[in-house]
Design goal:
Layout (H helix, E strand, L loop, with lengths): L2 E3 L14 E7 L11 H4 L4 H15 L1 E7 L3 H10 L6 E5 L8 H10 L3 E5 L21 E4 L4 H13 L5
Parallel strand pairs: 2-3, 2-4, 4-5, 5-6
Antiparallel strand pairs: 1-3
């Protein structure tokens, strides 16, 4: 279920700053965080990550919407819905990282800055995980920091979001 918050942040001179809208997408099996292979993914749950993203977003002036699905089609639909609503996408495609041309095409089509996030360092894992179908179309990749990788990506989101003209 999506979660969203908005905040009215201000710079030191008390002038309001524009709220950035960030869509955070979690792919398959991330709903099992906290119980699935904790030696690899840690004990933090997806609910904990989403809660902290919303809290941190409020601090940074970023409205955060989170979404998780195990279905490739649902993930593609949600990416497409971001057009005109989100300024930046943070995505952990899970296992679809290595296989999904559909997710790659959807990310390209919405033409938003995208940060790819992975809890583990995929290069220290099985060889088939070394290939990302989206690596060459994202602006950045963050991996190996556990849940903190999401928070690092969110901090970068303000800088990556297009500036108003």
């Amino acid at each position: 279920m999506p979660t969203k918050t908005a905040s009215a942040s201000r710079r030191d001179n008390d002038a309001p700053i524009r709220t950035v809208n960030a869509l955070v997408i979690h792919g398959p099996n991330l709903n099992l965080l906290g119980t699935r292979e904790p030696e690899i993914y840690g004990s933090t749950t997806l609910k904990d990550i989403d809660r902290e993203l919303v809290r941190l977003g409020g601090e940074l002036g970023i409205a955060v919407t989170t979404y998780q699905s195990n279905s490739e089609g649902a993930l593609v639909d949600r990416i497409q819905q971001a057009r005109g609503h989100a300024d930046v996408i943070l995505i952990n495609p899970g296992a679809y990282t290595h296989t999904s041309v559909a997710i790659r095409d959807a990310l390209s089509a919405v033409a938003l800055p995208v940060v790819e996030v992975h809890l583990s360092n995929v290069y220290r894992r099985e060889r088939f995980r070394h290939r990302s179908m989206i690596a060459d179309i994202v602006v950045a990749r963050i991996m190996g920091f556990g849940a903190s990788g999401y928070y690092l990506a969110l901090r970068a989101a303000r800088e990556l979001a297009p500036q108003p003209k």
